Amino acid sequence: MGRMPTFDRRAVVDAARDVFWQRGYAEAGITELEDATGLTRSSLYNAFGSKRGLYDAVLAAYLDDVVRTRFRPLGGGDPGALEAYVEEMRAAIAADSPRARLGCLLFNAGSSPLATDDAEVRALVSGYAAEMRAAIRAAVADRRPDLTPDAVDSLSTVCASLVVAALTLARADRDAAVATLASIPATVESWGYGRGLERETPSA
User: Which residues lie below 8 Å from residue 164, measured CB to CB, with a gap of 6+?
Assistant: First the structure.
């Protein structure tokens, strides 16, 4: 018996990611995926089970390789980590890089028709959003240790909402997405002053 053909699974998933990112799950054709990955339909199905199996592998890799890599510095004690995280996204969208202009792959999946009937996709996107909120909250706490826990909660909710809005806008209105992200540092800096939201400092 001949040996099964070998290929770089990561490279195949990366190539398929661009097709799904550009076209969406429903519109991405098998022929497009064959052309992008260099594999035949039968090889793709043998490796991933189905087009949906390949899509699931793409989403999982995006979450691990892209999203969690960006989250990793948040909450590590660096007060500048939140601004660096936001600035990286802002700069990529402002530069109109091919992937940045397509928005967030996971949020795109969550707003697609597939998510309407697919609990697994909804759960994946919901989990991603929860990870984002937790990472941003930790970064806000590092950036504004003077705020009360409730104020940190409120500010991190606003920051996470602005990030989600920007990633959603990136595909349709680059300038609005850039402006939304650019507003975050000033929002973080000014939050709570004069409103009694700061922690009490011990009297000398």
Answer: 107, 129, 132
